[in-house]
Design a protein that fits this description.
The radius of gyration is 22 Å and the shape is globular. It folds into two domains: about 30 residues; about 120 residues, Hypothetical Protein Ychn, Chain: A (3-Layer(aba) Sandwich). With about 150 residues, the protein is α/β, with parallel strands linked by helices. Strand 1, helix 2 and strand 2 form a beta-alpha-beta unit.
């Protein structure tokens, strides 16, 4: 048998094994319970710093998470509190990036206590940013309801 034919024969013999390995890798991608439309992964991210590098890191992490999970398999929320609240105020340098993430169904939520401290109101926020009374307890309550808290 020629070398070329021997290589082709060997590769053909490996195809079923390669398919099995790929199926095994896909099956082990997610922990149980598997994320579904009715039971997506729920992830809440903290945005607590007024540092362009940190804000960018949070948004980059959101993008990476969205790439990993199908859009129907993940629900993302960003809680902005403390100095991080400036990112969701009108005139924010990241307003366009937030709008883009909102189009992908990422929720942005502002801390009402921080708004009060800054003497700001809901009218000072970017469009579609919701307000909760206090950001940190919101993270705690979401965690108790099964959300995973990330602080990139």
């Amino acid at each position: 048998m020629s070398t070329r034919r021997a290589v082709l024969f060997a590769l053909t013999a490996l195809l079923p094994a390669a398919a099995h390995i790929d199926a095994w890798a896909q099956a082990g991608k997610f922990a149980d319970p598997q994320p579904t439309i009715d039971n997506p992964r729920k992830i809440v991210l903290s945005l607590s710093e007024d540092d362009p590098k940190r804000i960018s890191a949070v948004f980059s992490n959101i993008t990476n998470i969205q790439k990993y999970y199908d859009a129907t398999q993940v629900k993302l929320a960003v809680i902005a509190y403390g100095p991080g609240l400036v990112a969701v105020l009108k005139g924010s340098p990241v307003a366009q990036r937030i709008a883009s993430l909102q189009e992908l169904e990422v929720d942005f939520i502002a801390c009402g206590a921080t708004l009060d401290t800054m003497k700001k109101t809901k009218a000072d926020l970017l469009p579609e940013v919701s307000v909760v009374p206090n950001g940190l307890p919101e993270i705690v309550e979401r965690s108790l309801r099964g959300w995973i808290h990330l602080r990139p």
